[in-house]
Amino acid sequence: MTPYCGPAPERTDWFGAWNFDPYLLTALLVLCLWGALTLRHQQRDRKGAATLAMGAALLAFVSPLCAMTVALFSARTLHHLVVFGLLAPALALAFPIRKVPVVASFAALSAALWLWHIPQVYSAAWDSALVYWAMQAALILPAWAFWSVILGRSKLEHVVWLVPLVGQMGLLGALLTFAQRPFYLEHLTHAERFGLSALQDQQLAGLIMWVPGMIPVAILAGIMAQRVLRRDMHI
Predict the structure, then answer these.
(1) What percent of the chain has pLDDT over 90?
(2) What global pTM score does this model have?
(3) How far apart are CA 145 and CA 73, in angstroms?
């Protein structure tokens, strides 16, 4: 069965594999117009964040990255980092979700991260566009809420929630990197087109989550904690 964003592109023409799903493009256009109307009298920073969010959405779901997630699990991991680490924070800055319990948003985000990596759930999202978008929503919405708390409330008890988040990403990265067999059999034949075995592709995904994924969040946690401590000491 062809998954959403599929079929998997060839190694030589992946850069031409754009996703022009009319339903997706219509939804993005409607959201873009709604955002422009909502923010027309707002500060430039919020408008810039909204523009960044739209760019991240296009990168994740319209650009060839979408098709590459069908070929390579490592591309799927990069896709999740774009959604979680770029799209969701930009949405939080542009359209912050108010009065969100940090515990609830963290728990929901953690559940989504682990669910995406359960092979049976991954297969279900591969086989059904409905499940695929349900899983995307399960990741985007709690990440949006989580970043709304972290970026919108300058309190140390909120910043420290980045620590267990980084820990989970490190654990997931280690499990993928040091596994002795591939977990996601959907990529067995597709990865070979790009000169990788499915296990090598999975190990690369683990390294992507470990380094490009975990380190920026850890740096952000340090910067935010430093700012909060300076402010509190000044007070």
Answers:
(1) 67
(2) 0.90
(3) 26
